[in-house]
Recover the amino acids of this structure.
């Protein structure tokens, strides 16, 4: 297994190397004390895992993770940092990191994180896992919100008559509104329901009701 450590603190590098060798003695480890050196190594070699401090030699930020991922999309990336996990963990995972670990974590947590990254290519603390789950639940609820909930009472009346097969003129007479207003409601209904025909509208309403 080939691993790249991007870190400018010699003691941290030494500790990481020791932990990696304890897990897999035959692992090949390259090190880079600057982002530029890391980019150069990444263009010449392939790595299964990159362990990186995202604040070295004056360069920091999610852009470093994104650049490394662009060079090798299949490479797993573990971010180690002094930054607070509760604030920065999720944004860095969204930027492409496969794991996030605070430098203030215990030795046991470091062992767990490195082992997980080497074996599965993924790591997140229990707290960060909960953040990710909550974020996914929020996104899912927004993504799959029932479009029927956005239909107004008047639009619902028009929609029901359209589904029942009534013409624009018939609906206008029943609701005591003009045909143009019915047409406007119809366009709004189709837009809100994200369909482009009456047939598709009937199918979607049937599915969601």
């Amino acid at each position: 297994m080939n691993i790249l450590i991007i870190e400018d603190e010699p003691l941290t590098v030494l500790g990481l190397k020791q932990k990696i060798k304890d897990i897999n003695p035959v692992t090949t480890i390259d090190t880079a004390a600057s982002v530029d050196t890391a980019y150069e190594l990444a263009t010449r070699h392939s790595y299964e895992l990159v362990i990186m401090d995202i604040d070295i030699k004056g360069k920091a930020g999610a852009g470093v993770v994104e650049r490394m991922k662009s060079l090798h999309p299949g490479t797993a990336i573990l971010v180690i940092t002094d930054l607070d996990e509760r604030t920065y963990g999720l944004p860095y995972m969204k930027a492409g990191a496969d794991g996030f670990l605070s430098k203030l974590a215990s030795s046991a947590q470091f062992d767990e994180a490195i082992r997980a990254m080497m074996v599965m290519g993924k790591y997140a603390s229990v707290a960060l896992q909960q953040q990710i789950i909550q974020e996914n639940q929020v996104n899912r609820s927004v993504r799959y919100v029932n479009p029927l909930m956005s239909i107004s009472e008047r639009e619902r009346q028009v929609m029901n008559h359209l589904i029942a097969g009534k013409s624009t003129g018939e609906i206008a007479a029943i609701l005591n509104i003009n045909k143009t207003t019915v047409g406007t409601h119809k366009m709004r209904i189709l837009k809100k329901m994200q369909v482009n025909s009456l047939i598709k509208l009937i199918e979607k309403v049937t599915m969601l009701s």
